[in-house]
Write a structure and sequence with these properties.
alpha/beta; TIM Barrel; eight-stranded parallel β-barrel; 13 strands; binds NADP nicotinamide-adenine-dinucleotide phosphate
Length: 335
């Protein structure tokens, strides 16, 4: 495993991070609900392979992902760098409507009092007294950014969090957070959609991450499974499932995806790697301060994923890979 500082913070994080949206189950990850024993085994696998960085959010399974992690972290909390999110909550205390799902109405609220309640709720669910990193899940223009930065910096001073970040944001949001008068430590990480099928938003962001020494953290680098190989295209999911709602489920993309897998096959065979490892190695090659966040529920996938770090692709191979999907790339993805 390779480790890097998370942006300008003192957190030493594995380059591969564990994503736990799927662990939360519910109607968006409808194929299976994970058990506490499975969550514990997943963390065992992470530890065995050197992954110390875990990402979750209150809304993943409406509390379920955080609760499963809380149980799995018992007795080994300090072995992991724990990152959760704030702003999306289902307490019914105001903010902007974000979505209704599984009988819950989720609002987006970046006001200081809401963020403090989010942190207390996450600490309780995960049975810990500090969070290593706290990400504003959806940046929001309705409430003053200076107030949000103020409470995030206060939470650092109080020892409740050690770093903070932004998600579903634009470079202009990073600029605004970094230039707020309340800023001390500043934004350590931005977590944004990024994959070989949707690389443009990340590319717009990289110069700003460089300017502020902020890590860029991918989400959806495997496009929720669609980049793991042609067999995935045959799978069917419930209407509510994320994998039935992203563009790649549409037949019109399948020809392009199949052609890309065919073009990448000789490279996979020559390197003895999976398609997943190949597109992960491609992503890592795009920016030096990259944190590769991958959603995994199976220990076997943890073992497979970490091997992407051993792959070195030449500029020609990287270009060939992207050329194969040029016709189906999209600019914006809403997950
Ligand atoms: N900030 C945001 O708004 C936002 C949005 C989306 C996601 N996220 C975060 O980013 C994380 C990653 O995104 P994601 O989980 O949506 O999608 P992803 O990482 O693109 O894909 C996850 C899927 O890939 C499978 N997988 C993982 N490694 C594999 C391998 N080596 N071979 C074959 N299949 C493999 C997983 O299977 P198994 O689960 O069966 O192991 C899972 O079904 C999330 O878990 C979450 O923490 C954040």
């Amino acid at each position: 495993m390779q480790y890097k500082k998370l942006g300008n913070s003192d957190l030493n994080v594995s380059v591969v991070a564990l994503g736990t949206w799927g662990l939360g189950g519910g109607s968006v990850w409808s194929d299976r609900d994970s058990t506490a024993a499975e969550a514990a085994r997943l963390l065992d696998a992470c530890k065995d392979h050197g992954i110390n960085y875990i990402d979750t959010a209150p809304v993943y399974g409406t509390g379920a992902s955080e609760e499963l992690l809380g149980a799995a972290l018992a007795g080994r909390r300090h072995d992991f760098v724990l990152q959760t999110k704030c702003s999306l909550n289902w307490r019914g205390e105001g903010g902007n409507f974000h979505y209704s799902r599984d009988g819950y109405t989720v609002n987006n609220d970046t006001r200081p009092e809401a963020i403090r309640r989010d942190v207390e709720d996450s600490l309780r669910r995960m049975k810990t007294d500090y969070l290593d990193s706290l990400i504003v899940h959806y940046v929001c223009k309705s409430f003053p950014v200076a107030d949000t930065v103020g409470v995030l910096e206060d939470l650092i001073r109080e020892g409740k969090i050690r770093a903070y970040g932004l998600s579903n944001s634009q470079p202009a949001d990073l600029e605004e957070y970094q230039n707020a008068p309340q800023k001390r430590q500043g934004v350590s990480v931005v977590q944004e959609f990024f994959s070989i099928l949707s690389p443009f938003h990340g590319r717009d962001y990289f110069p700003f991450c460089e300017k502020y020494n902020t890590s860029f953290q991918t989400y959806g680098v495997l496009e929720e499974g669609f980049l793991t190989g042609p067999a995935f295209l045959e799978k069917r999911f419930a209407k509510t499932d994320i994998r039935a709602r992203i563009p790649w489920v549409e037949e019109k993309y399948h020809d392009g995806l199949r052609k890309a897998f065919a073009a990448w096959t000789p490279l996979c065979e020559a390197r003895g790697c999976s398609f997943a490892q190949l597109v992960e190695a491609w992503a890592l090659a795009q920016f030096p301060n990259m944190s590769l966040l991958v959603g995994m529920r199976k220990s076997a996938n943890v073992a497979d994923t970490v091997r992407c770090l051993d792959l070195r692709l030449s500029p020609r191979e990287l270009e060939m890979m992207e050329e194969s999907v040029r016709g189906i790339q999209v600019a914006v993805l809403d997950k």
